[in-house]
Design goal:
mainly alpha; 6 helices; 0% strand
């Protein structure tokens, strides 16, 4: 799940891909007029119009900078986790030579990165502040899937 949310757009551009991920959202935000429209809409969220606009601008910069840093880092934790998933879990591929292995700490580190990116994106698009409870991410994910299961019960 962590690696999927960081997947780049498929072979098509962001408007034609069927993939939704943070890099796809980044490409959509960079389309002409999109960020400007979101900043303009922030003015009407509440009585703090100008402050909202400034915060959206700041979050746009933070979002892009964090995503770029994750994309460019070496060794690339997302790539290490994705390759590990592909070889050992998703496809059970047996590749020679074996790709470099991620460290266990990469999982919680990347989860923390994704939480920050998701919070920035939620604020940029909807003006919503996501408050992740410390050490409650797993519980929150469980509650989410329980809510989905309750909404769509098996017949």
């Amino acid at each position: 799940m962590i690696t999927r949310v960081l997947d780049p757009p498929s072979r098509r551009d962001a408007l034609a891909t069927n993939r939704i991920s943070l890099p796809v959202c980044s490409e959509l935000l960079r389309l002409p007029g999109v960020s400007e429209q979101l900043i303009a809409e922030a003015r009407n969220w509440n009585e703090m119009g100008g402050v909202n606009c400034d915060q959206v601008r700041q979050r746009l910069v933070q979002f892009e900078a964090r995503l770029t840093a994750l994309r460019d880092e070496q060794p690339n934790r997302a790539t290490l986790l994705r390759d590990f998933r592909n070889v050992n879990i998703a496809h059970e591929l047996r590749l020679a030579p074996t790709p470099a292995q991620p460290l266990y700490r990469h999982i919680p580190e990347m989860l923390e990165e994704v939480k920050i990116l998701a919070a920035d994106l939620s604020f940029i698009v909807e003006g919503e502040v996501v408050r992740w409870r410390q050490d409650e991410t797993l519980r929150s994910a469980t509650l989410l899937w329980e809510a989905v299961a309750a909404q769509y019960p098996l017949d």
